[in-house]
Write a structure and sequence with these properties.
single chain, mainly alpha, Rossmann fold, 8 helices, 8% strand
Length: 233
């Protein structure tokens, strides 16, 4: 259930019946030959499809995140950590004021990991509430499905290449990219990082069969739905 399709009365009534809601969070950053908004697109889509049968409201995706390592790629937008912390806290407060007490953050970007600490600090002030961080792409069942298909999977590789993350008219390379030097990458500034990564794919093929991608997506939606559903101990 998209919040965009509801009015304030509907939200009030829904929160009184069920205090669960979902906030997808993503990033706008380089994804090789895929959309710059890949992380945001995937987080929002998996959240909406997962929550729909449950009737749980899904708020619009927070598209911007922490992507400092990619800022030398045009189109990448990265928030400062202090900005991101304040923004996440404000969003959680807004959801809380609306009556929601069990909040699932469906995350599409590994760089957003500090949100777990932000949520923990917020919960210290909002006792009785619950926040669950669900990294949809690396949740156990979804990641196992990816690895079963092809263990050479990484940022901006085939594992993020769905029909809804492709850029119209862009043809994907056909070769399998060798793995980049992760140790060197971790020590690099954005300029050095761009030279190490090149087009943006970290490792592996750029595209696989759509039937394989549909199989991964089905697992991801089911696993995300289970996270939203509970338990909420």
């Amino acid at each position: 259930m998209r919040i965009a399709a509801m009015n304030w009365n509907g939200v009030s009534e829904r929160a009184a019946l069920d205090d669960r809601c979902v906030l997808p969070i993503g990033s706008v950053e380089q994804h090789a030959h895929l959309s710059l908004a890949t992380d945001a697109v995937l987080a929002e889509k998996v959240a909406i499809e997962a929550a729909e049968p449950l009737g749980v409201p899904v708020f619009p995706v927070l598209p911007y995140g922490l992507a400092a390592g990619f800022v030398d790629y045009p189109g990448t937008v990265s928030l400062r950590l202090s900005t991101y912390c304040a923004l996440i806290e404000d969003l959680l407060e807004g959801l809380h004021r609306s009556g929601f007490r069990r909040i699932t953050l469906v995350n599409g970007h590994g760089g957003n990991s500090p949100v777990a600490t932000i949520a923990a600090e917020w919960l210290d002030r909002r006792r009785g509430s619950r926040v669950k961080l669900h990294d949809w792409w690396r949740a156990p069942a979804t990641w196992a499905k990816v690895m079963a298909i092809d263990p050479a999977a990484s940022h901006a590789s085939w594992m993020e290449n769905f029909p809804w993350t492709r850029v119209a008219g862009v043809v994907q390379p056909t070769e399998r990219k060798p793995e980049i030097d992760r140790v060197a990458l971790a020590m690099s500034d954005p300029g050095e990082r761009r030279r190490l990564i090149g087009d943006g794919n970290y490792h592996g093929l750029y595209q696989r069969d759509d039937a394989e991608m549909a199989a991964i997506w089905a697992v991801a939606v089911e696993e995300t739905r289970a996270a939203i559903e509970g338990p909420w101990a």
